[in-house]
Amino acid sequence: MQRRQISKSPEQSVQVHHKSQTDLSAWRKGGRTDSEKSVQNHQSHHDQENESNQDSLEQALSYFEKVQGYVSLKKNSVLQKHLTAVESIALQRGLPPEGFDVLLKVALSGKFADTVNTRLLKSLIPASVVPESAVVSAVSWLCASKCSSNVQLLFVRWLITMFDFIDHKEQLRALYGFFFFFLQEEKMCPYVCHLLYLLTRKENVKPFRIRRLLDLQAKMGMQSHLQALLSLYKTFCPELVTITLPRKTKTYFKNSEGPWKAAINTVRQRNQGNSPVSQLLFLGTAQPQSRKRKWNSQLVIPACSTNQDNLEEDRAENRVDLYSMNKSFPVEQLQTFSQLLQYIHHLEFPSQMGSVLTNPLLLHYMNCVKDESIYLRLYYWMGQTLQEECTWCVAENNRHEEEFKDFLETVYKTECFLQEGFSSCEEFLYKSLPLWDGFCCQSQILRLVSWIPLSSFTEMKSHLYDPLAQLFFTSSLYFKCSVLESLKGLLQNWLHWHVVHLDSESDSELCSLNTTLSEQVNMVAELIHFVGWISTAALRLENNHGFLLYFILDFYETVCDMYLGYNLPLLIMPPAGVFYPALLSMDSVSLNQLCYIMYRYRANLVAAKENEQSKKKILQFKFSSQTYKEYNQYITAMVGCLWTSSAFQNDIHPQGLRMDDELLKKTTVQEFKTSFNIVNHPAMMGYAALFLQQAWPGDTTFNFSLIKGRKWNWYLEYLYTQGLKGLKVFIESSINRVSQSSHSKAGNVQV
């Protein structure tokens, strides 16, 4: 037979890029070519074992190919021998492409008992690719009804798992109607929906199919697999699917990879470990593959419509014909941005949506052409991958933390590129954060948190805020700072989203996202309140650490400018547990930050008040009087501390600094009233000492009381030259020195 004739020609070279490997001899040699002689020498001790495996597999395939009639497994040593050989070789190295035609035919032809058929299907692990012809031939056996429903179900599950390994898919897509027929089988329906989801193109969406899915939904209820297919149909033809479907992406399908996933990973790792060259064979690509075949390479396309030999000469013709004939442009030929612009309406995305993540041209396409079907497919694929590969959710994945970390990094970069978060990532974070230890993939997880889309507070509190708070309070100072940085990024992304969708089209877009401006304001407010709460507690736990305070104030630098900077009608003052530690901080950086923040609060509140008074337009939102009241309390405390030396008398905040003089005298601190002005404040004393050195070089007493009158103004100018811009704008905006003479009197101010 030709199969065995090919296997007798070991000298035939294996063309990795040009075609899938189809002969047993090449499979036996692990895909080695003449240029890898050193690898051959290194692996010489495997030759004898490989030769034996090759012979055993040939004998087994020959046996199964010649089987006539029904054969029982009991007391059949020959069948036992060949079945064990196939299982052993498949689990060790995977099966060569030509083995699938024989084994699929046998498994689905009903010549053996279900036990044998099941074992054969579970052994179908590819060493490189799965020929489309073998799959189409196997599907034809389903029409003969020779195998049981359990075997049919297992075959469909195998087909879903191996979908990315099939070298071509055009003939398989032509069988769409045949697979659709199996939706009537209740047991197979979830898996057939999954397969149809992978095969669906716009031309497959027909009114009669939509009616059939709606009938099934009416009969079975709201099943996630039916919703998935209907959602995909609706993205292709929204005018045909008029029913309302859940907006939030779910885990639509059951996991189909159970019997094969571990074996695929084992085969891949063993083949890569035995021969670096064999890496090239996996999925027919020239790039080394890691365990995650679906996303780690630039663009993993298992097959092209033409051989590589003819590809170059066909490209020029294709570039003209594809456009004029309105055909799809092969995505593997997309190399430049100019090609993207020329064929932007003729691109067809690959079956492996994960390959999009590392292809900037396809990401540009996603940004330009808002094709919901692409996003839906990407969300589904990403959700499945995140769920299955999470190293702390699945125990067996602990060995692959670095690969999972790289994958999360790729997802994060894609979100940054597209400037939007993925709902599948949101769902993954909500499910995995309660199980997360805070260490594994820490940087990647916290950066993904910053891209969580706007959603209801109830969901965020139970799925994000609560598990994050537990980790926050029990982790290190640096973890706390990382969480605050992540939440600042989340707030900024929400605010940027708000600005982008504030145009004339915003009403319809907001409606489509089931959110309103009121809901946006409430969700942003809850995030700010949450950060204020954990920040107050963290400062107590970390003894008002300056490093932590910097990240907290950095968050409030965004909060204080939401009205003018992002046109969001919301301002929330920091809690007293943040404001007063910053005001009394021993670090000039924190004090300067606080001064700048209060300056921006003032600018935003003044602008809001002017808009209210001008009545040029009816405002949907007005800041509450409580916000103005709290700002005035804080500004009184700050001016009392830094300028008028009256904080202990004038601070009226319930948690403020107000104390009786008798109590202050008991502290035995001299001149306690001036303890926190801009000269004697612990954060400013270093500047005051340097100023005295320059003003009175010979005086070593450091008498701070000398800084008064005209020297006070000189001292202010000195502070401004030291980079304290926040202090400068605060004093200039919030302290009005009404006359020239008052410049020499620190107490004469108006707030």
Explain how this protein is built:
This protein is an all-alpha fold. The chain is built from 36 helices and no strands. Helix 9 packs parallel to helix 12, helix 24 runs antiparallel to helix 26 and helix 24 runs parallel beside helix 27. The chain is elongated and about 110 Å long. The N terminus and C terminus are likely disordered.
Briefly characterize the structure.
The chain is mainly alpha-helical and 751 residues long. It has 36 helices and no strands.
What labels would you give this structure?
751 residues; mainly alpha; 36 helices; elongated; disordered N terminus; disordered C terminus; CENPI protein
How are the SSEs ordered, and which strands pair?
Elements: H1 2-7, H2 24-28, H3 37-42, H4 47-66, H5 77-93, H6 98-108, H7 114-122, H8 132-143, H9 149-161, H10 170-173, H11 176-181, H12 189-199, H13 207-220, H14 224-236, H15 258-274, H16 308-324, H17 337-342, H18 360-368, H19 372-389, H20 401-418, H21 423-432, H22 442-449, H23 457-474, H24 477-500, H25 506-512, H26 517-541, H27 546-559, H28 562-566, H29 576-583, H30 588-614, H31 625-642, H32 647-650, H33 661-665, H34 685-695, H35 710-721, H36 725-734
Subcellular location: Chromosome, Centromere; Nucleus
Organism: Hemiprocne comata
Region (Disordered): 1-55
